[in-house]
């Protein structure tokens, strides 16, 4: 049995209200994930209704759900709160109101139980999701140092990961994130929020070479996606003048072409960074790593360039509590505990 599996750490994640407890059996983890889905229904309805996350509504939803979710998480993991070793919580970056709810609860919970409090950086947690094991013999995790492409709703970064705690940003977006590019372009096509998964689904039915969208010319390993968003918008505006049904008629091809462009932009810089740093172990993390086009591009690079690739399971790509708990676990081993006077931060780097 792996040592960390016997440690029980509860992870608090922003922005979803979800908790995860590393229990000795992985089945607990799976159960917790199905529970998480059930408990986030209200949160998702709010998001759907307003086409995005409304900060005030999100923090209120956190407040209402945080205690019942912890109760259920413990129940389904089959342990009592007294058996917990530590409380790991997301300190930032994120929406301040929701972070405050999680931070305050974590402080109170750890004080009441007299166990350590462990702050977790949300972005580091996305990267360390690769170390979540579904069984004790799972040795598929990346070896240090490796490159990690972190692509989510708020970030697009190439990170050199030297250890569980030492991470260096090699390149990052200078404007929008890849997830934002998916979501904003999907919105222009009249697709529901979040648009990324919808574009992915439609792209499977379309021709990726039907339309050409320009790629940015940025030095080094940095990204830019705002130009793509604008050219997509202008292209549709011009086409709609000629044919009011242009979007309906071309939704699949537009999605496939857009997805190909975003994936190409991401892979071009990642390939360059891997070549220059002489690192051929490459991972992907964050919500956009669920994208089938990006996953296929990783497989393709593994074959063509001899990369050893690491692609997380779907449930560990977007925000999840297990990634907070695994990050908390490694900090726990190092004795990196957080003072109770801690406050959350809305913005921070890795
Ligand atoms: P951050 O981690 O930067 O704070 P976040 O937590 O909001 O941002 P995640 O939950 O990691 O982001 O990812 C959400 C993003 O992932 C959304 O932009 C969503 O559209 C995108 N996404 C999810 N699935 C897919 C998919 N299959 N294809 C493309 N994008 C996707
Ligand atoms: Fe995230």
Instruction: Report strand order across the widest sheet.
Output: 7-6-5-8-9
Low-confidence spans = 1-7, 14-19, 21-47
Radius of gyration: 21 Å
The CATH superfamily of the largest domain is ATPase, nucleotide binding domain
What does the oligomeric state look like here? single chain
CATH topology type of the largest domain: Nucleotidyltransferase, domain 5
Mean pLDDT: 84
How many beta strands in the DSSP annotation? 9
Number of helices: 11
Coarse morphology? globular
Order of helices and strands: EEHHHEHEHEEEHHHHEHEH
Task: Provide a concise account of the structure shown.
The chain contains 11 helices and 9 strands. It is an alpha/beta fold and 350 residues long. The strands form 2 sheets. Strands 7-6-5-8-9 form a 5-stranded mixed beta sheet, with helices on both faces.
Structure explained in plain terms:
With 350 residues, this protein is an alpha/beta fold. The protein folds into 2 domains: 9-138 and 317-333, Nucleotidyltransferase, domain 5; 146-278, ATPase, nucleotide binding domain (Nucleotidyltransferase, domain 5). The protein has 11 helices and 9 strands. It has helices at residues 26-39, 41-50, 55-77, 96-113, 122-128, 178-188, 195-203, 226-242, 246-277, 292-305, 321-334; strands spanning 9-12, 19-21, 86-92, 117-121, 146-151, 156-161, 167-172, 281-285, 308-310. The strands form 2 sheets. A 5-stranded mixed β-sheet has the order 7-6-5-8-9, sandwiched between helices. A 4-stranded mixed β-sheet has the order 2-1-3-4. Helix 1 (26-39) runs antiparallel to helix 3. The chain is globular, with a radius of gyration of 21 Å. The model is unreliable at 1-7, 14-19 and 21-47 (pLDDT under 50). Adenosine-5'-triphosphate binds at residues 94, 122, 126, 152-155, 179, 182-183, 194-197, 200, 286-288, 290-291, 318-319.
